[in-house]
Amino acid sequence: MNTGKFVKYLLGVTVITLIVLAALNLVLPITPFLDFVIITLVLFILFTVLVFFLGQKTSKGKSGNLFLYIIMINIFFKLLGSFALVFLYVELKSPESKMFIIPFLIIYFVFTIFETYFLSLQAQESK
Q1: What does the alpha-carbon distance between residue 46 and residue 35 come to, in Å, rounded to a whole number?
Q2: What is the DSSP string of 53-105?
Q3: Which residues contact 53 (CB under 8 A, 6 or more apart)?
């Protein structure tokens, strides 16, 4: 997958995520957690871009194991970072409701699916 196609898909995924979150706001009151939603979305976008470029660089390399290591490190840091983000939000903001986790999970799953998609394309290109 080339960079231009990745950027188009990333924009599409981001817009779809925003539409889903706006629709969710009609059903559940997530507006009080808008700061957390924006921070989460921005961090996942940045992390996705980082993983794309690392994957692109390692998939073209001679060592196929390096690409596999990038995928494993991605999973580890994404989980660790997600736990840290939620923990910090709860500690710093002490939200009255636990509803903030729903938009977080939506963002997490959408971007995880997108990362899986483009990493699988990069893996196919590396063969």
Answers
A1: 17
A2: HHHHHHHTSS-HHHHHHHHHHHHHHHHHHHHHHHHHHHHHH--SSSTTHHHHH
A3: none
For residue 108, give the nearest of 72, 70, 67, 80 by alpha carbon: 80
Q: Cα-flanking dihedrals φ and ψ of residue 46, to 5°?
A: -60, -40
Are 17 and 110 within 8 A, CB to CB?
A: yes
For residues 38 and 42, what is the distance between their CA atoms, to the nearest angstrom? 6
Is the pLDDT at 122 greater than 90? The verdict is: no
Over 80: is that where the pLDDT of 59 sits?
A: no
Mean of pLDDT values over 6-11: 96
Tell me the two tokens of residue 8.
């188009």
Structure tokens at 81: 């970072």
- Tell me the two tokens of residue 26: 């009609």
Report the candidate in 98, 79, 85, 94 with the shortest Cα–Cα distance to residue 40.
Answer: 85
Average pLDDT (119-127) is 81
